[in-house]
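Service request form, structural biology core

Requester: graduate student, group of Dr. S.
Request type: structure prediction, single chain
Budget code: on file
Notes: please return the result as structure tokens.

Sequence provided:
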Amino acid sequence: MDHTEIQKRVNDLSKAMQTKGLREPSATLRFECNKQVDVYLRWKDVTKAAVSYLDSEFHIFSGDTPEEAIEKAVAFVGELLLLMRPA
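Core staff response, request fulfilled:
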């Protein structure tokens, strides 16, 4: 998996999160020395007051390869219920 495919998969994750109704979705893939690869998914929680990162929900998925971490994140997003957007 090269960097352009990784970028595409991360972009697709963010789009999938938005399709599920998550507000301000963000997907990040992170490489760190001597550690597994991480995918961070973050979005705004509409039930909390808007105060920086305190109003966000997030999940982290780790894997030995970018593919493994991304597939875990894709599975999580796929299982999310379609959320109702506030009027």
